[in-house]
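explain this:

___
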Amino acid sequence: MGAVLGDVLGFAAAVAISPLPIIALILILATPRGRLNGVLFTVGWILGLSALGAVMLAVASPAGASAHDHPATWVGVFKLVLGLFLVLFGARLWHRRPRDPSQARLPKWMGAIDRLTPAKVLGLGLALAALNAKNAPLTIAASATIGSAGLPVGQQIASLAVFVLIATLGLLAPLGVFLLGGERAKTTLGDWKDWAAEHNVGVMAVLFLVLGLKLLGDGIGIVTS
């Protein structure tokens, strides 16, 4: 189990420092119902990661993701395809990044965050975790790695839980600052939001390129072994 956690740590860290959900949470915390909605957004995020990971594990186990404690060939092919997707997506993001970070623009939907009901905030957190094109592939890759390691079901669930916890640290940090930081929290979170908004595309591009290359290497190793 320790080896598996080492393999998925990079994916979890990449999800944790994904700037877009962090910006969304900071904007939510600045609304009149920031305390409640911030918690609901984080809960939705956790549910989204857990659900997507659980679905991938459920698919991998019956499909024979592991054979004699070695990943099945189809897992290697899957990682090759996913790795290629991440590399191409990362290259596209890098090409489209603003040359001047100060010119970066946030998605238009963020302008409506202050009008979202608690139920919609919960759904937004779930969607950004499970349906977002920048985070879902990383969760799928981590779950495929867990599912192909030949672990007992209990250890698979525990590994997924650790992944979700680490992947949520990026949201727990601003939430903790807001709940415990008092008046100074507004300035701190504002600075974090500005930095994340300016470097969102560049950060994700680098992460996708690095992790995509890792997946390609893992896939080649599985297919050729």
Remarks:
- Strands lie at 66-67, 70-71.
